[in-house]
Amino acid sequence: MSEQELGITTSKEHETGEWYAELVQKAGLADYAPMGGFIVTRPRGYAIWERLQNHLDTWFKDTGVRNAYFPMFIPESYLEKEKDVVEGFDPEVAWVTHGGYEELEERLAVRPTSESIITPFLAQWIRSHRDLPMRVNQWCSVVRWEATETKPFFRTKEFLWQEGHTAHRDAEDASEETMTRLEQYERLYEDVLAMPALTGRKPDHDKFPGADTTTTVETLMPDGKSVQAATSHYLGTSFAEAYDVTYVDEDEEEQLAHTTSWGLSWRALGALFMTHSDDQGLVLPPTLAPTQVVIVPIWNEDSKDAVLEYAADVAAELDEAGVRVELDDRDNRNPGFKYNEHELNGVPLRIEIGPYEVEDDELTLVHRPDGEEATVDREGAVETVEDHLDTIYAKLYAEAEQTLEGEIREAESREEILGTIGQHGGYVKCGWCGDEACEVPIKDAIAAEIVMVPLAEDEEPIHDECAICGDDAEETAYFAKTY
Amino acid sequence: MSEQELGITTSKEHETGEWYAELVQKAGLADYAPMGGFIVTRPRGYAIWERLQNHLDTWFKDTGVRNAYFPMFIPESYLEKEKDVVEGFDPEVAWVTHGGYEELEERLAVRPTSESIITPFLAQWIRSHRDLPMRVNQWCSVVRWEATETKPFFRTKEFLWQEGHTAHRDAEDASEETMTRLEQYERLYEDVLAMPALTGRKPDHDKFPGADTTTTVETLMPDGKSVQAATSHYLGTSFAEAYDVTYVDEDEEEQLAHTTSWGLSWRALGALFMTHSDDQGLVLPPTLAPTQVVIVPIWNEDSKDAVLEYAADVAAELDEAGVRVELDDRDNRNPGFKYNEHELNGVPLRIEIGPYEVEDDELTLVHRPDGEEATVDREGAVETVEDHLDTIYAKLYAEAEQTLEGEIREAESREEILGTIGQHGGYVKCGWCGDEACEVPIKDAIAAEIVMVPLAEDEEPIHDECAICGDDAEETAYFAKTY
Ligand SMILES: [Zn+2]
Ligand SMILES: [Zn+2]
Questions:
Q1: What's the CA-to-centroid distance between B237 and ligand 2, angstroms?
Q2: Is B166 helix (H, G, I), strand (E, B) or coil?
Q3: Tally of structural domains, chain A
Q4: Per the domain annotation, does B165 fall within a domain?
Q5: Euclidean distance between CA atoms B479 and A135, whole angstroms
Q6: By the CB < 8 Å criterion, does B33 face chain A?
């Protein structure tokens, strides 16, 4: 491949959509599958997903969650038991109608989400208050037949996610669970993806079908649109009633359980790639980068042996210390080509080693996000490299934070909402009466919607009046365009 | 639950099928799903699968394999490009025909295996000999609509597995890859599942559709039937031809790649449970047991505080050292109940701690597989426990080995094959002409088949004549009944 074919040719700032599509393909993250709406997740993309999984899965297990696996198909009659769910998902379900040459007696839904197959089993496994809380999670793929344009990791008909499902003795326990998971998602964004995040509740008309409360993590993309980055639902007793999840309490009384569900999908990857990457390609935080450090030796005939030996020694020392390091000693590529390739592929830190570094017992470090260079002592390389990786993480976080800061504005009228989002993007918060009808004119005009309201239900609205209809405000609404 | 409900009521020896079904449910490994042929893998079962995955995945990655994820659906036209594959799987494919309220223009197969969707992408990603070997693997579920009786982990319409797909420059490289994976599967059985295994080739008429060579790991179950425990296929150039996987070699010539595929499914779990477990319940090797050691304190009112403190201290020390230990200090269950429960659930080692142990600074250890007891010093508990866990592994392996030993017999006639398998089960090896027709009478009479022939194609057959037809023998056939 020539260098031109290798590099990204579009501009993140001016053609965000085209740039993103090019990034995903050229950085080897994903390809489009032959069927519209599906993608193939390539090894570099999948390795990042595996690291993300590993963080979240460890936290889940540390807080009482156990993984399980439920069938990918759900009988139509099961889906229908919770009518809110089936109404919510009906238009998006892929149906299996034939097995081999036979038509099935009952159609099977490819799971769009698994409440309706998991909850009946929770009902079966739970007998007494001693069985509560019960928490299961599965990492799997789900299918939602949405007829919108494909955007890898953001909008695909099949996507990878985890879905947690828990049952509790009362509303308090279940609400606490909902918040625990929301906070773990927030932590994932803040501490692993280097992305600041907002947390809030979805307005009633945008809750998960059947949920009492849907909480959400929202992150702002560089183009000013908000991404729903994870959700955690308190389902009240609606699913427990539909599927008969009861337990015998300490007084031998039968009680309805309260349930939750919560999920994070590979959309988190989309948000990650979109946030940090640039016109040179992928930018990754060191926490998730498959290769954290690449060593590029620079030699001529005379210096080759010394440079390569020195470089291999540094690589071995870093590897030994658990740094994910790659020594790029390919003979058939020049250093410039290698720089471009590793920049495209998102390696956070490059170490350049030439005759001068060897002579002076030094290393030249280059940060991927901003090209900052530092010449450092060869001695103490592990600690120095780890410091620089931390610095790179902090830089990424700071830049994303700067994007968010100042992007939460206030408005007191419909015109102000439209004008502010139209001009700046970002979030606009305003007083809201709570009526979905007041979202409609904003949605119709500029495709912005209420992405969240504050977590605390009793929080005073920022203004006394609904910015749209002028009635008494019940809540503060955050309007934004969305992915 | 009463103790009677808790325990297993059937006999492994006399009612193997019923016993296995009871074991799977009562040890919390899996439940039957509402649709025939599907199961729900419960947390204890899934945790064992996760550990198994972790072993195999680490070995794969250490030997150049990278994980990826391909769509769960395959367009019918893609499946048809490799006619052998479509013929092989057609009767077993589940078809998605509708997305939402719309009928799809082209039916989508739920993947029965992914050669036909992965190979076209290998073709796209491979340009030059420098891109080879290319290896991708995915952990996913596949669906095969077989109309046989459900047997959890052995026979289910949906099952979890991994499927590796690789492309190489020539037959030698690809054959070597096939053997590398076969050996990793064998190692998994020997070193992780505590099961001795045989390796061989499938006879030509039982190869994977389109394969040049199908190699297999076979394990013998206690009831004398063989389980195909993993397979690794050298696919020659048939898939490369069908999907156009070519590369440019050093001389700028276009060449066809040689491909392989290899897979191991959760059938490995079925074989594991079936092999080691007994009438008291699940028996697991310490390598895979979610809980390796359970500490059961035995107290009366006077000794309670001292016993619990001592037990907690031992638990903390083991936990610190990385042993997966659980302290069962439940107040509302007596020690006998706890013993039964942990035996049912397959905890390899029990530590009993009562007032005498506290007084004498000792521990009483009990091995799950055979009830062997040992009283050991409290000091050095970690090392002692680790030794005992190793001993337990060795015991399990030795017992499984004993089952296999002496179960490979020879026969020189059709009657002898039938009689020997009929009487003893196990494997019968004999000379074979290579003709599928000679398998038919054995299959028809006692449902035994040729499960493998030796790996080396040039190995001399053990007898000069085919035991069935009397023609010249080409190979040694291993007949056995199968799962
Ligand atoms: Zn209003
Ligand atoms: Zn014959």
A1: 30
A2: strand
A3: 3
A4: yes
A5: 46
A6: yes
Q: What is the CATH number of the domain that holds A373?
A: 3.40.50.800
What CA–CA distance (Å, rounded) separates B459 from B198?
16
B97 plus B134 within the same structural domain: yes
Least Cα separation, residue B50 to chain A (angstroms): 9
Residues B117, B11, single domain; the answer is yes
Cα separation, B31 vs B152, whole angstroms: 8
Q: Do B256 and B298 share a structural domain?
A: no
CB contact under 8 A, B94 and A91: no
B459 inside domain: yes
- Closest to B121 (Cβ–Cβ): which among A35, A40, A50? A40
Q: Are residues A111 and A213 in the same domain?
A: yes
CA distances from A105 to A86, A99, A408, B36 (A): 19, 10, 53, 12
Give me the residue from A46, A69, A70 closest to B69, CB to CB.
A46
Q: Which of A276, A305, A325 is the last residue of a domain?
A: A276
For residues B317 and B415, state if they share a domain.
no
Do A455 and A384 belong to one domain?
no
Q: Does residue A154 belong to any structural domain of this protein?
A: yes
Q: How far is A469 from chain B (nearest CA, A)?
A: 36
Whether A103 has its CB under 8 Å from any CB of chain B: the answer is no
- Compute the count of residue pairs across chains A and B with CB atoms less than 8 Å apart: 149
Range of the domain at A359: 293-389
B223 and B320 together in one domain: no
Yes or no: say if B265 and B164 are a contact pair by the CB < 8 Å rule.
Answer: no
- Give residue-wise pLDDT tens across range A158-204: 999 999 999 999 999 999 999 999 999 999 999 999 999 999 999 99
Cβ atoms of A329 and A316 closer than 8 Å: no
User: Which ligand is nearest the CA of B441, by number?
Assistant: 2
pLDDT tens-digit map of A90-129: 779 999 999 988 999 999 999 999 999 999 999 999 999 9
Name the token pair of B183: 């050996």
Q: How far is the CA of B435 from the centre of ligand 2 (A)?
A: 6
The Cα–Cα gap between A138 and B49 comes to 13
Q: Whole-angstrom distance between the N-terminal and C-terminal Cα of chain A?
A: 33
Which one of A5, A6, A39, A40 makes the best mutation probe of the B interface by having the most chain B beta carbons within 10 Å?
A40
Residues B261 and B376 in one domain: no
Q: What is the CATH number of the domain that holds A181?
A: 3.30.930.10
Return averaged pLDDT per consecutive 10 residues of chain B, 483 residues in all. Answer: 70 95 97 95 98 98 98 93 72 93 94 94 97 98 90 97 98 98 98 98 94 97 95 96 96 97 98 98 98 97 96 98 98 95 98 97 98 98 98 97 91 97 96 97 96 95 97 97 92
* Chain A contact set for B145 (CB, 8 A): 99-100
B284 within domain boundaries? no
B92 part of contact set with chain A, CB < 8 Å: yes
Q: Does residue B35 sit at the A interface (CB-CB below 8 Å)?
A: yes
pLDDT of residue A5: 65
Domain final residue, candidates B357, B389, B421: B389
Distance A264 CA to ligand 2 centre (A): 58
- Output phi, psi for A419, to 5 deg: -65, -45
Question: Considering only residues 144 to 183 of chain A, which have any Cβ-Cβ distance to chain B shorter than 8 Å?
Answer: 145, 147, 157-158, 160
Return the structure tokens found at A385: 């490299």
Residue keyed to tokens 């010449």: A375
Residue A239 near residue A126, CB atoms below 8 Å: no
Q: Which helix (H) or strand (E) holds A309?
A: helix A304-320
